[in-house]
Amino acid sequence: MTTPSTRTTSAAPTAPTAASAPSARTGRMRHPGLSALGRRTAALLAVVALAQTAGTAGAVAVPTGPAPAPVPARYAHQRLDWQPCADKATLECATMTAPRDWHHPGHGPDLTIAVSRHRASEPGRRIGTLLTASGGPGGKGLARPADFVTKAPALGAAYDVVGFDQRGVGLSTRAVCQTPEEFQAFFAGDFRDDTPADRARVIAASRGFAADCERRSEGLLPYLTTEQTARDLDLLRALLGERRVSFYGPSYATRIGAYYATLFPQRVERMVLDSNTGFDGTWERFQQRLPMSFQRRFEEDFLPWLAARDATYHYGTTAAEVKARWEARRAALREAPVVDGPLTIGPNQFDNGAIQVVYRAHNFPLLATALTALDDWPNAGPAARAAARQAFEQYLDPEFLAEYFAVTCNDTPWTRDLSVWAERSAESTARWPLVGARTLAFAAVCATWPVPTAPPVRVTGAGLPPTLMLNSVNDPATPIEAALSAHRALRGSRLVTVTGNGDHGQYPGPNPCVRSTVESYLLTGALPPGDLSCPSPEAG
Fold first, then answer.
1. If you ran DSSP here, which 8-state letter would residue 5 be given?
2. Cα–Cα distance between 384 and 381 in angstroms, integer?
3. How many domains does the chain fold into?
4. Burial 470-504 (b: 16+ CB within 10 A, else e)
5. Cβ neighbours of residue 162 under 8 Å, at least 6 residues apart?
């Protein structure tokens, strides 16, 4: 999962859409020491300890997905024409051609995949290539290596760091669904409303989005899957001239890495999976956990943070007072949304602001400042209005959701009975309203999506070197419960649990325990002997 604040802008010429994708062409393209924890966190850590696996590196690989097909010569023999990236002077960019369907590479027009590279800054120390991928699904990864090496210079010195816009997004061949104006209907109204008419309106908007995606993407949708992206990665590995590659991926990219490792275990040198989706199971199962985890982050982390700063933001001195004030403001926006030019802040946009901001604690002041603007919008100052626009306007868009829904609806089976989703939505709204209220809207897209044909991929870790996994205990977008389940499934993995923290994405960051563990592994291959906990420096 990702948010606009973590997405990167691409650095290359205009990308082809599905309608304009060219045919195949050549592209040169321990930290011991825990602070006091609550009973729930202590229980989670006990589960972490029990979840240690006893897999052995070098075991016989038994991928459960389809056997890789031979790569046709027109793809395998292309050359990447590296040129300076238009928007990132430190990177070089190229374009790779890939089949639309790796299982039938002769069928349909080819795709183009935009790729980038930051050369190891100290060639004498170079130890290989580190592939990076972006979250979402829907995030753009082409410019990611530039930011990554700035924050992780030790890795930038020793690795060629490679990024890409995955199929379906950015400057690669992308899906097309709706215009921003058409998409406004998706978040209109209040997802908490639950009359038959309200449900019908939400379902109609979701069906309309799915239908527009299918009609406008010209046959591309069935091939926007994690399994197809994993095969794109292996083609990129080969074109880079590497026998093996290392991989770092946050959020949704953990599924990309896990699928790649399952299909091509012999091609993996080292792998770090940061903030883990439930890649051992279905997207439906994973997404059913999100209302709980977002509500937990909002109530256990953000509300107390805001209450402790009542002198600054005047929103209440206790978490309960802050929550009551939040609900009162939401109710007021339901009756009278703030409308200022293209900006509309109604109850759904209000929720979206919190959903976006709680990914990272350093964004908490943004939401708090935005709340002060809503107290008196006509007289709000420029800084408060700017914060409100950033918090409430810049969340999701039809381009991002085209890929998000394509992948999540295609990868694994979905329950297609909308009466089931209406019931689940009512329950989630009552228990965890922040994200639970949108359950029907999001699930109805996948329930009405074209029936997926993606082959199943079961992640086991067979044949892999031990994999390093990272997750914070209060991560809203990749809950620790999903990380524990994925950890048990990924044989031989080590899980680093960050306590006293709920941020999404732990590396590269300020936690010295996390940083030393990740860099020791990627630079020397040394892993902790078992799972470990890294207390957050901010937790005191």
1. G
2. 5
3. 2
4. bbbbbbbbbbbbbbbbbbbbbbbbbbbbbbbbbbb
5. 115, 116, 117, 118, 129, 130, 131, 132, 145, 236, 240
DSSP string, 325-349: HHHHHHHHHHHS-EEETTEEE-HHH
CATH code of the domain containing 119: 3.40.50.1820
DSSP-derived letter for residue 300 is I
d(C-alpha 498, C-alpha 380), whole Å: 38
- Alpha-carbon distances of 437 from 79, 358, 474, rounded to whole Å: 49, 17, 20
Instruction: Give pTM, 2 decimals.
Output: 0.89
**Each residue's pLDDT tens digit, 284-312:** 999 999 999 999 999 999 999 999 999 99
Mark whether 17 and 33 lie in a shared domain: yes
In a domain, 455, yes or no: no
The verdict on residue 454 lying in a domain is no
Alpha helices in 217-363 (DSSP H): 226-239, 253-263, 283-297, 303-307, 310-313, 319-335, 347-357
277 touches 486 (CB < 8 A): yes
Q: What is the pLDDT of residues 378-426, one digit of tens each?
A: 999 999 999 999 999 878 899 999 999 999 999 999 999 999 999 999 9
Shared domain for 119 and 208, answered yes or no, is: no
**510 and 521 co-located in one domain:** yes
DSSP percent split of the chain into helix, strand, coil, nearest 5: 45, 15, 40
* Residue span of the structural domain in which 125 resides: 4-174+221-281+465-539
Confidence of residue 241 (pLDDT cuts 50, 70, 90): very high
Q: Based on the domain organization, do 165 and 189 belong to the same domain?
A: no
Residues 471 and 368 in one domain: no
Pair (150, 43) in one structural domain: yes
pLDDT band at 69; cut points 50, 70, 90: low
Phi, psi of 344 (to 5 degrees): -125, 125
Whether 400 is in a domain gets the answer: yes
Asked, for residue 232, whether it belongs to a domain, the answer is yes
Measured at the CA of 265, the angle between CA 259 and CA 266, to 5 degrees, comes to 150
- Same domain? For 46 and 84 the reply is yes
- Nearest 10 degrees: Cα torsion 195, 324, 438, 294: -150
| Amino acid symbol at 105 | P
Is residue 75 scored above 70 in pLDDT? yes
pLDDT attached to residue 186: 96
**Residues 523/513/280/484 CA torsion (nearest 10 deg):** 150
β-pair partners for 496? 470, 532
Q: Could you give the percent of the chain with pLDDT greater than 70?
A: 87
Between 52-56, 108-112, 334-338, 511-515, the lowest mean confidence (pLDDT) is in 52-56
Whether residues 424 and 532 fall in one domain: no
Closest CA to 468 of 414, 522, 388, 512: 522
